Amino acid sequence: MHPAPSIILFTTLSGAGFGLLFWLGLDSTPPTGWVAFAFFTLAYLLAVGGLMASVFHLGQPRRAIKAFREWRSSWLSREAWTSTATLTLMALYGAGLTFAATRIGALGFIGAAMALLTVFTTAMIYAQMRTVPRWNTPLTPLKFLAISLAGGALLAAKTAFAIPLLLLAGALQLAHWLMGDRLTETGSALVPNSGTLRAFEPPHIGDNYLTHEMAFTVARRHALKLRVIALLLMAPLPALLLALPGGHVTGGFAVLFHIAGVLAARWLFFAEAQHVQARFYGTHARTESV
Amino acid sequence: MPKDQPGLDMSPPVSDEVRRTTCYMCACRCGINVHMKAGKVAYIEGNRDHPVNKGVLCAKGSAGIMQVNAPSRLRAPLRRVGPRGSGEFEEITWDAALDLAVSWIRPLRDSAPEKFAFFTGRDQSQSLTGLWAQAFGTPNYAAHGGFCSVNMAAAGIYTMGGAFWEFGQPDWERTKLFLLFGVAEDHDSNPIKMGIGRLKARGGRMVGINPIRTGYNAVADDWFGITPGTDGLLILALIHELMRAGRIDLDYLARFTNAPILLNGDQKSNDHGLPLTDDGGTPLVIDRRTGQPAPWNGQGVEPDLTGTIRRAGITHRTVMHEMATHFMDPQWSADAAEGPTGIPAARIRALAADLARTAFDEAIEIDQPWTDFRGHRHQKMIGRPVSVHAMRGISAHSNGFQTARALHVLQILLGAVETPGSMRFKPPYPKPWHGHPKPHAAGKPGQPLDGPHLGYPAGPDDLLINPDGSPKRLDKAYSWEAPLAAHGLMHMVIPNAHAGDPYRIDTLLLYMANMAWNSSMNTDDTIAMLTETDENGDYVIPRIIYSDAYASETIAYADLILPDTTYLERHDCISLLDRPICEGDQVADAIRWPVIQPDRDVRPFQSVLIALGARLGLPGFVTEDGSPKYADYADYITNHERRPGVGPLAGWRMSETGLTQGRGAPNAGQIDSYIANGGFWTHEIPAEAQFFKPWNTAYQDFAVSMGFYDAPQPYLFEIWSPPLRRFQLAAEGKGDRQPPEHLRADLARAMAPLPTWYAPLYGAEDYPVHALTQRPMAMYHSWGSQNAWLRQIHTSNLLYLPTAIWDAQGFAEGDWARLTSPHGEITVPVALMAALNPHTVWTWNAIGKRKGAWALDGDAPEATTGFLLNHLIGECRPGTQTRRSNSDPVTGQAAWFDLRVRIEKADPPEGARPAFAPLRSPVPAAPRHLRWKVGR
Amino acid sequence: MTTLPDKTDRKLGLVIDLDTCVGCHACVVACKGWNTENYGAPLSDQDPYGADPTGTFLNRVHSYEITEPDAAPRLVHFPKSCLHCDDAPCVTVCPTGASYKRVEDGIVLVNEADCIGCGLCAWACPYGARELDAAEGVMKKCTLCVDRIYNETLPEEDREPACVRTCPAGARHFGDLADPDSAVSQLVAERGGYDLLPEQGTKPVNKYLPPRARDCGPSGALTPVAEDPRGFLGWLDRALSKLPGGS
Ligand SMILES: Nc1nc2c(c(=O)[nH]1)N[C@H]1C(S)=C(S)[C@@H](COP(=O)(O)OP(=O)(O)OC[C@H]3O[C@@H](n4cnc5c(=O)[nH]c(N)nc54)[C@H](O)[C@@H]3O)O[C@H]1N2
Ligand SMILES: Nc1nc2c(c(=O)[nH]1)N[C@H]1C(S)=C(S)[C@@H](COP(=O)(O)OP(=O)(O)OC[C@H]3O[C@@H](n4cnc5c(=O)[nH]c(N)nc54)[C@H](O)[C@@H]3O)O[C@H]1N2
Ligand code: SF4
Ligand code: SF4
Ligand code: SF4
Ligand code: SF4
Ligand code: SF4
Ligand SMILES: [Mo]
Which of A188, B834, B871, C103 could link C73 by a cystine bridge, Cβ 3.0 to 4.6 Å? Predict the structure, then answer.
């Protein structure tokens, strides 16, 4: 799949933002006043920034509002609802903390749950895709949730939770990769009784929306390198940094590394994912280097 | 569950108006419905009523809308101001353009008309252009058939009075076994596809004989991946097998072919091997009723296939005797064919058996009595449901004429021509070679030529040569180098004019042929010839006038450009006098008419030619007082008469009692009648006349009534060809017109009166690989690439290599290869293809473009990785001392597919090699986006 | 309406004959022409005369090469457009309801006025049958020529998809696949029409007819009547004497 920067940015940033909101909502002794303001601003920058990025990815951003319509069947629509609900609830909750130094516990809990649900709906957009076997697994939402929780904990400076969550996220990411690697190209023949079938000529010599969007694959050796970097950056390194006594400085680096690692992993999440329709383009699927 | 589905307008009006005309995205000439919205072309679809396409339309036809709005369209007449090739032009008025042209060519007409040469590409107005050139008086006129398919056409005419495509077609409704030789697309694009579809739907079988298994060959039930240039061997082996088994249609051979004709057996005679005739010159057969010689066409005569006659101690035997001796020779056996063709002998034998079984055991009958020219009444029409089609895969080799002859003889032996289920001629064919004119080349300054340029010689006496044997025509057509060059040799025009061989010319008028690119046999050489100057700094070919509609590669090499309209902006006629669109059971012709008006200062070339004719005062183009005879082409189409009562269009003519068809006086409302009828006219052939046309009195009478000819002219198919034999006799030293020594041996072999095979003449022993091109179905030569929709399908091309070469040289995807021929070298991207003859490589034709042409960006893939094989081909045959054209020695057909190469892996260059300097575009830059919708 | 109808009254679709498709792209361009001028936004083209021309097409023809042991390699041309699936995942993923399946005939359409161009439906489609138009930013897909097949301004015989009408080889058939007696259903039954990638669970309405077996024409050889010309002429004399008029 084509690794669109806007989508990578969106899922990474909003994941971390909603993760932070989760921890803020759950926190029984949350910051208040300016500190709360700072935390919430960060969370909203990440979450809303990510959402904005995804809106600009749309062909018709001005109609984005219509995305709320089909919550009964569409995970994207559900994401629209959950994210808006989360942001609304958490705005009220955050306003209470910032301006009135009051914690409306129930609001926080519901908001936290909604934040997780938001991440889950985002993940389900991918996980539901039968057409992309690498995504079409329960590991996808689990991984998204773990990464979001870990990133959130990291941002919320919940070190005790952050370290195990980072390691869990790392483990799930690894599992996701390994499981994806075990997938073999199966599926029924495009033409019955066709021995070995090979794409001879594509329908159009140049690119089209489909080849651009879905026939992207990354070369294996590049992927491996990137996986190592992504994994190290997103889990063990930040965990190690957190374990070190460094206060804000190491914490800051941990956050940066983690985000960079997740970005790289997210890039791979797309770049390594093979869409079944690429089978139609066969050998003509583009292999592009990083 | 009630659904809140959005409201949909399910009946939106498709257009304000439908204008029905004829497609011209290729030469197939399908009927189209042009849907108009607010005066603009909104959508093009096939015309269901049209005889050619019956509603279907190919990719090119549907993309016509992108053709008429292509940014490459020329906008006004251009006069060259910079050096040739620089692309520096100024726009001039039409008046200035015509004045200039007249100032160049009028003096030539008055002094040496042969110094003016006029050659046209794939246009469909050859009856006008030919007439014009004849009136001008130059011998140097032809269309492009000489580099296209003259082998097919000439072999068909000489053998049976018709060939494939415009002349004949399989009886698609009835045929059961269809053999397709060497066709990727053909001119008959849609009809072939429709025919194959119908054949398959009926459960018929199709065999594809082609080195490459794409397109039609991909859907063929059986594929014979033959080695290029060897079809003759395969066909002769089939004939050999059929003869040995006696599985041939003896009755058909006896009645309708010259198999029973007696040949002069006197080896000393100058007529040795020519038909014995009676005193009146009528060839003789032995009448089985009497055992005596009789004229072949005598009433009631029953010709004897094995008759002999002994006169003055010499036994004269029939053609059938010669056939037995020739075709039974082991050199034509399946075993002998196996090696060169690459087809196992067992498969060849099986195919022969399949042919025989289908033709004879699955024969069909139509309950339709008919009478032949000997007065014999046949109660039924017996059909042989075997049909064949072939095109350039056979035609474009230097042994193509004989191969095509062999193919026709195979059909004839099976009784599979003009019988139900086999091949049917399309009116005005059948028409034997002797029903056509002879070629003419004698002109006097200021006078018209002595007759039509092109025709069918009966023997050496009809050659167009001077007393010293030198050619009269610039292209050397009808000289000893190409005696039966029925379509001229367009590929030799520029090389010969450049070499001054046989002479130099002054002005070359080219129409609709991209000679500085894909349609010349060696692109770089041709460009050099067009730009070369003599010691005075003058161009060796002093003046070039060119009519194109688009910014093609050739524009840059002309001195004066006469910009044509697109096909939706002009009148045209698809005439019975020219290249009609008839069907086996239907006479038909058609027109084009301006369904839109040009928005540029362009004019239809035919009207321009008529205007030029008037300015030059050419006979036929001016009235007695010297004023223009025709206002424009539409006027000409309506009012020109070739013979009294016979004009360009056969429909809606005028008789004393009202409208008539075929023969009749001009009718001022004729074009309107065509428009009202959908742009075409058809007339059903009577049922009794629909088959056995060359011999069927009902058809002969019908043909006369339609004006195809003036008296019935039944004839016999010529398995043994007397014209060829006359040339062969000359090569053997008989007669007073003798070929030059260096051609004698070649001629003796190539002019064999019975079909034969010899290896292609392109001397390239060190070049083991055959290199071919194929037409992509969605592209038309060079002009597909200017079409925004079509070019996305074929934006660039690859060279396909067979597995054997791929593996042997360790090629991998993305690799490039260097191809070397005796003429040049190219470096191109390659890809693997398994379904390919192991000695053959190929690519799509004419995808490669020159930078700057066609209003494409300079970095368009067509111009960077796209390539032509033409850089490797040569007009002259390698390894010959004198200039010998790379052509069939009989017809002068360009031998494109004789090309042989060496191939080796190459480092990927920046783009395909050779790379040419970019051309300066004569049109403004193209738009960056397209959202074409006229009815918003 | 992004949920799928439980059942549609009819199942209109295409049956594509891989045995006869010659890969001419006629259907591709007819579709482009019709849908540029009709339903919704025009199918746009980017860089149409430049280095990287791309455009929106609703129907594309692939070609594949098939190699098998002990058989000559062969090519199959493979046209592909929306298969109007019964269980169309492209519909259920759509957040806006722009994608829907019609109850009356099962045609899957995009209501462009509602489409936000998120591209999800294209991801959900296993067949690559949807393309986002780069100029309009909305999803385009085969409409089964819904604006032709019921179009009362067209003559009855023209109420069929543009691609079907134009296909020179007659390799495309249109009809109701819910009706077992329809010509298309019978063709599917006779020729073993199959579902493309059934494991995707989309239940495509369109069917493909597989190519017939190749290169298995009759074998055997003719029995000679003679091996040389003399023998042949002898046979010929005998054969001729049996013909009417023979002595
Ligand atoms: N779409 C489209 N249609 C066209 C044209 C076009 O450019 N585009 N051009 C038109 C013109 S001008 C012409 S002349 C016709 C030509 O139409 P075709 O005769 O179909 O010509 P080509 O496409 O050159 O295909 C020649 C075929 O012959 C095969 N071949 C080559 N050598 C041999 C051989 O020795 N034996 C056998 N058996 N096969 C061989 C090649 O593999 C190829 O398949 O098409 C016309 N129609
Ligand atoms: N390698 C290789 N080369 C080949 C062949 C091959 O098989 N292999 N085939 C050969 C054959 S058979 C042929 S016929 C030639 C074809 O070659 P060309 O005859 O050169 O064919 P086109 O590229 O179609 O060029 C015709 C010119 O006509 C112009 N044109 C198009 N429409 C109009 C119009 O309405 N009016 C006017 N005035 N001009 C118009 C086009 O812009 C173009 O410049 O190619 C030959 N070249
Ligand atoms: S075959 Fe295609 S391009 Fe040629 S005339 Fe017919 S529709 Fe037009
Ligand atoms: S138009 Fe018909 S034959 Fe041509 S590619 Fe399409 S389906 Fe195949
Ligand atoms: S083919 Fe694709 S776009 Fe069409 S209905 Fe099925 S899933 Fe949807
Ligand atoms: S692109 Fe349009 S039709 Fe497709 S899912 Fe998004 S909103 Fe729905
Ligand atoms: S049915 Fe209509 S929209 Fe669908 S592929 Fe055919 S022409 Fe295109
Ligand atoms: Mo041609």
Answer: B834
